UniProtKB/TrEMBL annotation:
<feature type="domain" description="Carboxyltransferase">
    <location>
        <begin position="1"/>
        <end position="199"/>
    </location>
</feature>
<dbReference type="InterPro" id="IPR003833">
    <property type="entry name" value="CT_C_D"/>
</dbReference>
<protein>
    <submittedName>
        <fullName>Allophanate hydrolase</fullName>
    </submittedName>
</protein>
<dbReference type="GO" id="GO:0005524">
    <property type="term" value="F:ATP binding"/>
</dbReference>
<keyword id="KW-0547">Nucleotide-binding</keyword>
<dbReference type="InterPro" id="IPR010016">
    <property type="entry name" value="PxpB"/>
</dbReference>
<dbReference type="GO" id="GO:0016787">
    <property type="term" value="F:hydrolase activity"/>
</dbReference>
<dbReference type="InterPro" id="IPR029000">
    <property type="entry name" value="Cyclophilin-like_dom_sf"/>
</dbReference>
<keyword id="KW-0378">Hydrolase</keyword>
<dbReference type="Pfam" id="PF02682">
    <property type="entry name" value="CT_C_D"/>
</dbReference>
<keyword id="KW-0067">ATP-binding</keyword>
């Protein structure tokens, strides 16, 4: 791990990959929730593709916090893989406008694309782009495709897409450049729900095919 100071009250912890980020986030989250010692001053944990931002307060001793982060990471390594943050099933109509293109790019039939997308559980790596949007990792590697060369100006809410190693679901209508293979009626973000986001880092996501 590499520690990069972000201002006077946060560490950006660089790791090798998303699996290491998820393991570190799972190790630190219960410590921050318990709030003992220096962890009482940790306000937020923000995972990304290869980093975890640990946000504390201006009064926090960052050197002490870094020591505690390293110790927690070492304990997590010894205890094995972190538990997931629960399972969520997402029913999908595989009617996306880019399904045929994804099949052509991957050398699969459209049915095989659907089978690959539903056949392997995905995991929420991190959130971003829009409230409720989750970057899903760990799917079938045959589904890795590049983004569209020309993004759409309007992607409908509930669109299910692929981009690089990720899959994702658009939580609201917005511009976007992902390859769209399906759609779902599941609500990803609800301000009146606790928590508002359906998908949290570490959550296992299983896609199931439903009729149109």
């Amino acid at each position: 791990m590499r520690f990069l100071p972000m201002g006077e009250s946060a560490w950006l912890v660089e790791t090798d990959d998303i699996d290491a980020v998820l393991a570190l986030d799972a190790a630190l989250a219960p410590l921050a929730d318990a709030g003992d010692g220096v962890w009482a001053e940790v306000d937020d944990l923000v995972p990304a593709a290869r980093t975890l931002l640990v946000v504390a307060r201006r009064t926090t001793n960052l050197a002490d916090l870094a020591t505690q982060i390293r110790a927690a990471a070492t304990r997590a390594d010894r205890s094995g893989p972190a538990q997931t943050a629960g399972d969520v099933e997402i029913p999908v109509r595989y009617d996306g406008p880019d399904l045929a293109e994804v099949a052509e790019r991957t050398g699969l039939s459209q049915a095989e694309v659907v089978a690959a997308h539903t056949g392997t559980p995905w995991r929420v790596g991190f959130g971003g782009f829009a409230p409720g949007f989750a970057y899903l990792v760990g799917g079938d590697p045959r589904l890795e495709v590049s983004r569209r060369s020309e993004p759409r100006t309007k992607v409908p809410v509930g669109a299910v897409g692929l981009a690089g190693e990720f899959s994702g679901i658009y939580p609201r209508e917005s511009p976007g450049g992902w390859q769209l293979i399906g759609s779902t009626d599941v609500v990803l973000w609800d301000a009146d729900r606790d928590p508002p986001a359906l998908l949290a880092p570490g959550t296992t996501v299983r896609f199931t095919e439903v009729g149109s």
